[in-house]
Amino acid sequence: MCLILIAWQAHPDHALLVAANRDEFHSRPSEPAGFWADRPSILAGRDLEAMGTWLGVTRQGKFAAITNYRDPRDAVQPAQSRGKLASRYLEGDASAAAYVSALQTERDAYRGFNLLAADRSELWWSSNRGNGARRLAAGIYGLSNHLLDTDWPKVERGKQGLREALRGNPALESLFELLARTDVADDADLPDTGVGLERERALSPLRIVSSSYGTRCSTVLIVGHDGRVRFAERAFSSEGRARDTLRYEFSLSD
Predict the structure, then answer these.
(1) What is the C-alpha separation between 63 and 167, in angstroms, rounded?
(2) Where are the alpha helices (DSSP H) in the chain?
(3) Which of 43, 108, 145, 249 has its CA 20 to 30 A from that of 55?
(4) Does residue 74 carry a pLDDT above 80?
(5) CA distances, 113 to each of 1, 52, 87 (Å)
C-alpha cells in the first residue's frame, strides 16, 4: 500500500474514513477484498505469497493498514513480511495501543514499514523508521512511503482532496475520483529517496500506472458513528483500466 488518506474523528457522521491506493508489482499474486474463510470476522484483501494484508477491517471495528518505507538499501536485507503486521493485529484480541507497544520489541525484524492500527477508541501510527508509536488525535492524515504526513506531493494533494470531501457528506465515488488522479508532480517538488529522478516522477501520482508496478486497487472505508461500515475496493489492470468494484456493508458487532 503506497498511499493512505485517513480522517479520524473529523466528521460529525463518520468516526473513521480511509481512502487508500495499494501499489504493488502486478505479478505478485493476491486475492481481492472479502471476508476470509479462515477468519470470517476479517474483511480484507490478501497477499498470497505471505498471507498477510495491506488493509483490512473487522466486524468488531478494528482497522489496520500498512505501507513500506522506501529505502533501496532494504532490498538486500532478509526480513519477515510486513503484511503480517496488519493481519496479526486484525486476527488478535489486543487493543491498538497494546499491539503497537508490543511491536516495538520486534520492529527490527522487518524492512521499513508504517503501520496504522485503530480500534473503536484510538488510532495509532507506528514505524520502525520513526520514533516508536504515536496515538493520533482527531484530524486528517496522509501516509505514503516515508513517515506520517511527510510533505510529498501525493500526500499533500490527497490530504487537501480529503479535506474538501469532508466539507460535505463524502460519498464512495467522490473518494474513488480523488484516488484516481494520475497527474505527475513537478520535478522541484519531488523527494529524493534514492531511486533516481525518472522513478520519482513515475511514483509521484496518487494513482500509478505502469505495466510492471503500479496501483493494483483503490479502497474506500467509511465507519459511521452509528456503527455502519461501508467498504469498497476497485481493482485496476496493468494498463490502468478500472476493473470490478467490490462493495460491502455491515454493522459493527461486539
Answers:
(1) 24
(2) 83-91, 96-103, 153-166, 172-179, 197-203
(3) 108
(4) no
(5) 10, 14, 14
pTM of the shown model: 0.96
Residue entry with cell 522487518:
110
161-210 pLDDT, tens digit each: 999 999 988 999 999 999 999 999 999 999 999 999 999 999 999 999 99
Nearest Cα to 156, choosing from 142, 167, 176, 175? 142
Q: Which domains does the chain have, with CATH numbers?
A: 3-251 (3.60.60.10)
Query: What are the grid coordinates assigned to 212, written together?
Result: 510492471
Burial letters for 141-157: b for 16+ Cβ neighbours within 10 Å, e otherwise? bbbbbbebbeebbbbeb
Assign 75 a pLDDT band (cuts: 50, 70, 90). low
Displacement of CA 210 from its chain's centroid (Å): 20
- Those residues whose C-beta lies under 8 Å from the C-beta of residue 208, and which sit 6 or more positions away, are 2, 21, 23, 182, 202, 214, 215
Query: Most distant CA pair in the chain: distance in Å?
Result: 50
DSSP, res 194: S
- Each residue of 105-140: b (16+ CB within 10 Å) or e? eebeebbbbbbbbbbeeebbbbbbebeebeebeeeb
How buried is residue 59: exposed, middle or buried, by Cβ count under 10 Å (0-12/13-18/19+)? middle
Residues in Cβ contact with 159 at an 8 Å cutoff, skipping those fewer than 6 apart: 5, 140, 141, 142, 149
100-112 pLDDT, tens digit each: 999 999 988 899 9
Give the three cell numbers for residue 11: 466528521
